[in-house]
Structures are given as structure tokens and as C-alpha cells.
Amino acid sequence: MSIDMAQFHQVFFEESFEGLDIMESGLLNLDMGDVDSEAINTIFRAAHSIKGGSGTFGFSAVSNFTHVMETLLDEMRDGRRQVTQSAVDVLLGSVDCLREMLSAIQDENEVDEVSVAEHKKALEIELNGKQADSQVADVEIPEQAANEITAIPNDSSESDWKISFCPHTDLLKTGNDPVRMFRELSELGDLDVIVDLQGVPPLFDLDPEECHLSWTLILKGNVPREEIDDIFDWVEDECDLSIQVLNSLEESVNIQQLEPSSVVGQAIPVVSLATENPANSEPKKDIPVVAKSAKSEEKKSKAVASTSIRVDTGKIDTLINMVGELVITQSMLSLVGEDFTSDKIDQLKNGLVQLERHTRELQESVMNIRMLPISFVFSRFPRLVHDLSSKLDKKIELKLVGEHTEVDKTVVELISDPLVHLVRNSLDHGIEMPADRIAAGKSEMGTITLEAYHRGGNIVIEVKDDGKGLNKDFLRTKAIEKGLLDPDAVLTDKQCYELIFMAGFSTAEKLTDVSGRGVGMDVVRRNIQSLGGNIEITSNLGFGSTISINLPLTLAILDGQSIAVGDETFIVPLGSIIESIKISDKMVNRVAGKGETFRLRDEYLPIVRMHNVFNVESAKATKLTEGLLVVVDGQGVRCGLFVDDLLGQQQVVIKSLEANYRRVEGVSSATILGDGSVALILDIPGLVRLSNQ
Amino acid sequence: MTQETDPQEVEEIKRGNFLQFLSFTLGEEEYGVDILSVQEIRSWEPVSRIPNVPSYEKGVVNLRGAIVPIIDLRERFNLAHSEYTNLTVVVVLQTTLKGRSRTMGVVVDSVSDVNDIDTDSIQSAPDFGTKVSTEFISGLALVDERMLILLDVKKLLKLDGVDDAGEDDDES
Q1: How high is the ipTM of this complex?
Q2: Do residue A660 and residue B51 have CB atoms under 8 angstroms apart?
Q3: Are strands A396-401 and A446-455 parallel, antiparallel or unpaired?
Q4: How distant is the Cα of B68 from the closest Cα of chain A, in angstroms?
């Protein structure tokens, strides 16, 4: 029976990272004063499944580490330990450490053992340093877990233990491995194992899948009872187990007495196990060898976007219903078509109407599957704000609104980095120091609000802070200082705020490692524009600023205007069209006898003749007065596209031209029209570049 | 634990050293492509022209939702252009270039046959100097006293200006 465990690794990693996210958000939401036991339970469960999973897959470094976390959490859960800020911080640090360990294992890199040891030590200090407290607390809290086991109830103080463990013969069949359990025990303290071979039958009768051994274990080193119970948690129904306090005077097992290690935080010695286990047919799994850490500061950033997606089963059920309907409609139509007579025309029409409806619904629900709640992005911010605010000594509260707003997976993946940047900016530049806030008559606690909502076919994401706001005059001066702006330029408020999107612009007086190098906002804007969105700033000096990002819900469908040039059809993204005009000769000017421009209100715009740029020979209109001028704006580039005619607006499904073919200048992608033919979707900046050549 | 078997391997094991080629004509000449790279054979239908590309790239069509370019092999090989008729055939070829699957249609005069060809009997293409381009030709084979020009599909599907870099790293 050999199962290739590697095939499950990916699932394990995905689940573990999810678990870590749950732990992280749970920890951040813990209220020190009034601890919700359910919240701690959630964190505990997440830790427990990571531990279980990593144990199963043989990532013992991970499971050992998680185990220590789990112990701490367990005590908090039972109320034996106060939830303190320091404990939460240590746990948060451990979550990070665990995440690094997991990604290192996933990438088959070496685990940074030094950092793991540090975190583990911090956890143990947290765990052991409060021993005195926990004993006091024990008096009040009834013990539940310990009583269930067929062991002598015992106060949960630490001591040395004698464990007699007689598993039933089918223990191995349930997937439990004593060796693994002993290995875990050995990490709790000094472990001595005495194996009893008497139950082993003669070789001929021996079934290698049965366990005939029993053990007596002596565990030393001030181990809490719960930790031992934890290890035997899975097997308690499949063995005779007794756990007793070891009285060192009575017990004269052939072990040499060790000094009980009582020093807080002392690294627990790990004794190598020497168990003979002939009945155990499973080969020992190799413990991942953690080599000496080569501390590399720069972690390889993983650019690989995840290719799998978790979908609500409800959505899939809807889809299946929809497909069912479609099949019914199809069979109805084929019935009508089988021997068609003219009196069946109504039936046919009905069928076609149904077909259309079902197709549209099907399209919507398939799109829906790609939709993810924006909370996938938002969830990382509580941590970010938590860490940064303590680093900057600011008091900041983060409010998340509309986390359940759904948006296409691609958008979710691509919006995350720009948002992080914006939130960091708000934290660093927007919110003032607590003292300044009080002086300004505001509450000491600053607020950053992340809000997402749908508006039309778009999603709007707002980053709002109640900080000092943007100072227009200051922005202006800075821009002039940096030579980015002409001193005489007249700017509207909006244009002033948009100065911060210019490359090389920074308002921070001093550089911090959070922000202030003047790179970033331009990149943010470019990223958002490349997603087909735009970004706007409004600000109120002294009261804060709001940055709102407007993004299309999906990148797979586009609202388009079809235009005709000769007998060819092209699609212009509707969002980039400003207006369409018919022009007269006197509106047209020539620059150097060649470049045609026209005046639109107070602006001179270049004319791009589509039939010239794309070499359309069949174009009907060659004189500017014969056709139409579509005024378009693509990423700040404005021009008039000269076309034969406008055809109509429609939603088009974006298809890649590059998948089987090549990139074509002036064309962003292609789509399939209602008649099955292919139309090209125009890329406005590319077109302008092309016409300038 | 079943090992995924490559259909091509099975084919080769079964047939010894024989490979199957689909043969088609361009004017007087007869060409052959590895049948495993042929996805389907379609009749010619109007394409959507793509601006500012070489003239042998006729345009793109919608192949069940995928945008697939159509290439005129006559023009690609600098043969005289002929009018497209109802009998003109598009052979849709598929191969893997740089780890990505690439589908493309090639316009040919007509499709003739499927031939089993012993790999040992394939001759390498003679060097015609610079006059005739032999870059797409993988070899020559004799079928029923006729010469079949065997084409290298991978090279055929490479587009000028797109796939120039990295000549032989295509095998994924």
C-alpha cells in the first residue's frame, strides 16, 4: 500500500496558508479585556489542523512548532491563562514564522532554523513564564479534558510522568504510529522508552499490520499533563493508557535520575529515540533535514499567481441547474426541428427566447464563479495596520466596509499591491502623530477606512483617512521645487492632488522605511489604469483624504462600441469614448502640412485616420467630412479616430490574440461578434503611437 | 499509480519506425505533415484581416471560441497566389511552442492522403543554396514514385517577429 503523499501536498499547503490567515485575523481581533472563547477556539482549531496535517505529511519541524503554539492557545482556551498583548504578539510572530517555514518547504528551500528556534523560544518563555499564574487559575476551572482519559485524575501541574501504553492490536490500521507519538513526547522532555515484547507472537503468526507491543514511558522535565494528553488524544480509544506522576523515590526503573529542569525558557533537550518496533511495517519517514540556516534577507518573491480557485458549492449548483435548463431547451428545439411545419413557428420562437435567456444566465453564473469577495484582499490589512502603527507610534483603527463585495479573481490578485501602497501612504503621511491629533482637536485614535462597493458595472474601492489631508499649496511648491511643474501653471484642485501621481514626487520630509521615496504612486496609477480603471483623490485639509479606485468588475467582458471602417468592424472600449462628432473642414488644421489636428472646444487633438493606420482599402470615407470622428481618451492620450460609421454598442467577450498568434500594435485583444466573425478591440495609446510613425 | 503514456510513443512502438503523414498539395508540389499535429481539416471561410502584418498571415478566425490565425502556405513559400474557392482547404495544426500550445490554420490547395512513411527512408532536404527556402522542410520521402516534402510543423508555426528568439527550446 503505497500512496504518493506528494499529490496531497498542494492541498495541505493551501489549507495551511488559509489556516494561518484565520489565525492571524483571529489574533488581531482578540479583545484583551473580554476574550471571546469562540474566537480562541477558531484560532486553536486552525493551529490544530496545521499540526495534524504537517504531522501526517512528515513535516515534523512544522508540527513541532505548531504544537508549542497549540499548547499556549489551549491554555488560553481553557481560561487557564490570561490573554495578554505580549502573548498575542508572540503568537502573531509565530504565525509569520510558520508561514515562512511552510513556504520554504513548499518551495523546497531550507527552513530558516535560527528564526524558528527564536520564535519557539519566545513561545516557550511565554508558556513557562506564566506557570505560577496558571496554577492559581486552575483552582477555579474544572478540568474536563483530563478526566475523560482512563487515567488517574491529576492536578495539571508539571512533573515527571510514567506512562504505560498498551495499544490494541489494530492501532496501526487506524493510521496511528507510536513512533511518531513518542517522537512528540521526546520533544516535551527527557523520554525513556521501555518496550514490552511479550505480546509478540511467533514470526509465523505475526501479522505485520498488527501491533503487539506495549510500552512503558518515563517522561521527565516538568511537562504539563495536557501536553501528554494531547499526544494520546487520537489513540485513547484504541489503547489501555495510564498516565501517572512519577515518584522518583519509588520508581527504580533503570534510568539515571536527571535534574528536573526548572529554569524558565531553557531549551528542552531532545533525546534520540531508540524504540524497536518490529511490528511497525511502515518505514520511518525522513524528518526533513533542516540544514544550517543561511539567513537570506531577500526572500524570493513568488510571482506565481494561484491557478486554483475555491468556489462556493451554491454557485456550482446554480450552474448545474442552468445547464439542465439549457439541455431541456435544446431537446425541445430539436424536437421542433425534427419535422418542422410552418405552424410550429411560435414554438420555435418561444424556444429561441428561452435559449437566449438561459445562455445569458449561464454566462452570468459562469462569470460569478470567477468572482471572489474583496475580503481576500482586505483581510491582510488589519495585520499591516497593526504592525505599521506600532512601528510609527501612531494609534490607528482600521475599518473595513463592504468586504463581501465580489470582484473578478484577476482583479483581486492585481489590486492587492496598489492597495497596500495606498494604505501605507495613508498610515505614514495621512494620519498624524497622536499628540498632533489632540492638538488639532481630533481624537487620538486615527481611522483608516477601506470600503468597497459596486457602482454600475464597476467596483469602487476607497481608502479613507481622517488625517491631515493634502495641502494644495505645499504640493504645488514641492512640485515646482522638484522641477515637475512650471511655476506659472494654473491648476485646479483636482490637478493639484494629481501631482502626487507624478513620478519622482514625494511630500515626506524625511525618508522612512515605510514610504517617502517618491516612487510608488505613479506605479499605483499605472497598475490601476492597466486594469482598465482609474484613481481619484479628494481631500479636505485638516480632515483627511479619500482615494477612490474605480475598476471594472471583470476583465473578461468589455462594454464596446463597434465602429465600421470599410467592410471591417472594430471595437472601441466604451469607457474610452468621450464623444462622436461630425466635423467640418474649418475645424481641421494641419501641422507642418501633414499631421492633422482638429479643435474640440479649447483643445487641439490629433486625428487618427483608421483606414490609413490599418491600411483598410475598402474604406468609404476618405474625406474627413464624409465620416465620423470618435473622440477617445486612452490612459491620458486623447485623439479623434476617423471612422466610416458607428454601428452599435454591445458587451463583448475579450479573447486573447496572443494565445495562438501575436501582439498587434494598436490592438489590445479580439472578440467574437454575433455572426461568429472576429473583431479587433482597439488599443488607443497604441493607435496613437502607430499613427505617429 | 498509472503512468501517463504519450500517445505518440504508443504509436511508435506499435508501428515500428513508421510515422503517418497527412499529405496535401500546393500547385504541383506535394507536402506532408505529421498527422499527430493535425487537429482538424476545414473548408476555407472568410477571415478577419489583421492590419500591418506580413501578407501571408491572412487573418484570424473564430475556431469554437479560440482566435486562430490563418496562414497562406502558398504565399509563405513564395508560390504563385491562387484564388480561394470552395475546395480550398484549411488544415488546422497544433503544436507546442515554448511550453505553450499553439494552434494555427494553414491554407492549402487540397488534402490528398495519409501515408505511412518509414522513418529510415526519409532523406534530408538537399541544400538548394539561398534560392529556395528550406527552413520548414524536415525531409523528403518517396510515396508511390511521388516525392513528398515533409514539413516541420514547429518551424512552420513560428511567426516572424514573434518566435525568433530561442530556436530549439520548444520541447516542453
Answers
A1: 0.78
A2: no
A3: parallel
A4: 6
